[in-house]
Write a structure and sequence with these properties.
106 residues, mainly beta, two-stranded parallel ribbon, 1 helix, 6 strands, 9% helix
Length: 106
């Protein structure tokens, strides 16, 4: 299980900062697909009429996990950068830290 704090102090490479600053951490999420994009329009035109499915539909998923991507926003210049993590089954943002010698409370 990976637990990441919501605020992280890391290097900001942009011209305004170029030093270590605090960054707000969020999890990257893919945006909504645009129906007016050329590839999307071309694909739907190809689907119309006879001939079946024109492109292969991928069904042999080998991976059980995805690589997590963090989106860091600089608190001073508000520029954003992304960092990818390794594969993990459980990802938590801003959860409680584990402490040594404490009992687990339910």
């Amino acid at each position: 299980m990976v637990n990441i704090p919501k605020v992280r102090k890391t290097y900001c490479k942009y011209k305004e900062c170029q030093r270590h600053t605090t960054h707000k951490v969020t999890q990257y999420k893919a945006g909504k697909r645009n129906k007016k994009a050329l590839g999307e329009r071309r694909y739907h035109m190809k689907l119309q009429g006879y001939g079946g499915q024109p492109k292969p539909v991928f069904r042999k998923n080998a991976k059980t996990t995805k690589k997590q991507v963090l989106r860091l926003e600089c608190q001073s210049c508000h520029k954003k950068k992304q960092i990818s993590l390794k594969r993990c089954k459980h990802f938590e943002l801003g959860g409680q830290k584990k402490r040594k010698g404490q009992m687990i409370q339910f």
